[in-house]
Amino acid sequence: MGLGYTLAYRFKITPWVKAGRVFGSQIETLLDPFDAPPGEVLDIGCGTGDHAIEMARRGWQVTGIDTVQLALDKARSKARKAGVDVRFMHADATDLEHAVGRGYHLILDVGCYHGLSDHDRVAYAENVTTVSEPHATLLMFAFGPGHRGPLPRGVSRSDVERTFEKWKLVSDVDADTTGMPGPLKKADPRWFRLVKR
After folding, report:
1. Where are the alpha helices (H) located in 34-68, listed in sequence order?
2. Pairing between β-strand 190-196 and β-strand 61-66 as defined by DSSP bridges
3. Architecture of domain 2-196
């Protein structure tokens, strides 16, 4: 998967960047239930940094990780232009603790988990659990399950609940697909919100 994303960024074939901006606009509504002040947030699969930068603007201390160096370079440039401080790191979602440490109050995943293999999903869940604080929130955007050619295979509610056994799934809502191309609308995009037990 890493090579495919590296090539896609190199040749500027990155439709998820545009889609992520549209879906990212929904993050504000999804964060409304938070009554705690901002803390540490980890943006997994941060790409070119749009969500990480927005979270930093809101007062969060943000670490963004990705496996594509070109995307991280663009993210750092965007953050400088935006005048925000974000720590962008080359790291893998299945090996987090050594790269990013612990203490995260919010984990943000806009389209990483739903493209992982079953083995990597288990490692991801274990790593997210290790690096997050008690009662942390995981806010995850994912497509519903299905075979869609080059699009990620997606994930079901039961898959999420089974893999994240140390977390409680508190909401599973349809993502707003206004303005999205047909293939993305048909992919049953969802927002999962989980709270660490």
Report:
1. 50-57
2. unpaired
3. 3-Layer(aba) Sandwich (3.40)
Sequence letter at residue 142: A
**Cβ contacts of residue 91 below 8 Å, gap of 6+?**
65, 66, 67, 99, 100
Cα–Cα dist 64/100, whole Å? 9
Cα of 59 vs its chain's centroid, Å:
18
pTM of the model: 0.86
Instruction: Extract the runs of DSSP E, i.e. beta strands, from 98-189.
Output: 104-110, 132-142, 167-174
Burial of 40 per CB tally in 10 Å (0-12, 13-18, 19+): buried
Q: DSSP assignment, residue 132?
A: E
Residue-wise pLDDT tens digits, 59-117 = 899 999 999 999 999 999 999 999 999 999 999 999 999 999 999 999 999 889 998 99
Taking the C-alpha atoms of residue 45 and residue 93, their distance in angstroms, rounded to an integer, is 8
Other beta carbons within 10 angstroms of residue 143's beta carbon come to 22
